[in-house]
Amino acid sequence: MGIFEKLKKAKQPAPKSNVGSEKVNEITISEAELRKTLKGFLYSEDLVEEMLPTFRKLYDGHPEFKEVVELIQAKEKELNNINEQQGYFNQDSNPNDDPEKTSDNTEDEEGGKDYLMEILESRYGE
């Protein structure tokens, strides 16, 4: 079952029964565990404090929210793994290259003529 199907299912109202309320009570997590989870992807202690009541209500009111948090944690781990790779962000070009030798130069290297300017002058004059 994909995440979108799970989110659709989560939007549907839960049937009111004693079995559902027991399930909600099983999923609640401790305050320390929730803080640790939030710190893992929010990074800032101030932001964790600000968002803690919201995440607590989501955990308590929607048992499916745990799956959303697990998805966020998985993506955060992927990002951290990419950042830890040594060669991932290496610069391909040499920063000491002469910018005059790039393809943005308007003069043709073969004849030394600026064909764009010749065309513009012939059409519109000087």
UniProtKB/TrEMBL annotation:
Composition-biased stretches (Polar residues): 83-96
Region of interest (Disordered), residue spans: 1-23, 83-114
Origin superkingdom: Bacteria
The name this protein goes by in its record: Uncharacterized protein
Source species: Vreelandella arcis
